[in-house]
UniProtKB/TrEMBL annotation:
Source species, domain of life: Eukaryota
Organism: Sistotremastrum niveocremeum HHB9708
InterPro entries registered for this protein in UniProt: C-N_Hydrolase (IPR003010), C-N_Hydrolase_sf (IPR036526), Nit1/2_C-N_Hydrolase (IPR045254), UPF0012_CS (IPR001110)
Single biological process term from Gene Ontology: oxaloacetate metabolic process
CDD domains the record matches: nit
GO CC annotations, alphabetized: mitochondrion
UniProt KW keywords: Hydrolase
GO function terms (MF aspect): omega-amidase activity
Keyword Membrane included in the entry's annotation: no
Protein name: Putative nitrilase
Similarity section: Belongs to the carbon-nitrogen hydrolase superfamily. NIT1/NIT2 family.
Pfam families: CN_hydrolase
Gene3D superfamilies reported for this sequence: Carbon-nitrogen hydrolase
Length: 298
């Protein structure tokens, strides 16, 4: 299992996500290059893109923008023969800059399973290898009268697996946006030894101010882990108005960095001593009463 070492994370709050997929990918490439340069400071070890970074966000767009990834857990993946343009571009970017990359999420089509569609995050190591994918488990189906109705399940299916992966600096759990509302996912990841949960996400102008920061602080404090969420920039000409405010929170629930709502790259330095001192000082990780309630993570 990966040990926690100091590392730097960059969240790319990507703007200009329009209807031209090639343009979206080109812009993401440029922003990865910019993020990898470190913004005048140390280069990051891990770069994160937002949810649905290559397509407009909305269930009517997913069938048109979906790409076939065909990843099989535990089997080597041949990026060169991938049918996914996004995978090829992200893999090349991770390799060129020698960084770990969580490639936000993209609409994915699984040709092996009746062409089902998913909202899928892909993860690359510094050699450009695709080492994990996460399919959004909890679909964003909500209805707040007069404010927002959104039904991802109109075109998407929910993923059926939880995702964790090891880097050379931490074990990381991965979710996508609405997944953050389900504490079980982060709890299970933490009990499996994850030091951080990362969620590419895209809250909106109704739920963002209510819950975006609160949920990340809750997941961080519940589990004494680092939590980061990376949003697209706000674009009031798009169908969906993202909240922005990409954020990294430490295991005490303190905000390490928070962006505004325009396009921006923010960096946070992850300090293992905060992880250790939080767990030493408030030792809930060793005070659980599995004699009173079941250990759901086993
Ligand atoms: N976009 C999402 O998946 C979730 C969201 O906006 C919310 O939970 O609020």
């Amino acid at each position: 299992m990966a040990a926690l070492r100091p590392f730097r994370i960059a969240l790319i709050q990507l703007g200009h996500i329009g209807h031209d997929k090639s343009q979206n990918l080109k812009h993401a490439q440029e922003m990865i290059k910019k993020a990898a340069s470190g913004g005048g400071s140390k280069p990051p070890n891990l770069i994160v893109l937002p949810e649905c970074f290559n397509s407009p966000y909305g269930h009517k767009y997913f069938p048109e923008y979906a790409e076939s990834v065909q990843f099989k857990q535990g089997e080597p993946y041949d990026v060169q023969s991938s049918k996914s343009e996004s995978v090829k571009i992200l893999s090349a970017a991770a390799k060129e800059h020698g960084i770990w990359l969580i490639g936000g999420s993209i609409p994915e089509r699984d040709d092996r399973d009746d062409g089902k569609l998913y909202n899928t995050a892909t993860v690359y190591n510094p050699n450009g290898e695709l080492i994990a994918i996460h399919r959004k488990v909890h679909l964003f189906d909500i209805e707040i009268p007069g404010k927002i109705t959104f039904k991802e399940s109109t075109t998407l299916s929910g993923g059926t697996h939880l995702t964790t992966f090891d880097t050379d600096f931490a074990r990381i759990g991965l979710g996508i946006c609405y997944d953050v509302r389900f504490p079980e996912m982060a709890m299970i990841a933490a009990r499996k030894g994850c030091h951080a949960m990362i969620y590419p996400g895209a809250f909106n102008l109704t739920t963002g101010p209510l819950h975006w920061k609160l949920l990340q602080q809750a997941r961080a404090v519940d589990n004494q882990i680092f939590v980061g969420m990376c949003s697209p920039a706000r674009d009031l000409t798009a169908d969906y108005h993202a909240w922005g405010h990409s954020l990294v929170v430490d295991p005490l629930g303190e905000v390490l960095v928070e962006s505004g709502h325009d396009e921006e790259i923010v960096y946070a330095d992850i300090d293992p001593s905060v992880f250790e001192s939080t767990r030493r000082g408030i030792p809930v990780t060793t005070q659980r009463r599995f004699d009173v309630y079941p250990n759901v993570a086993v």
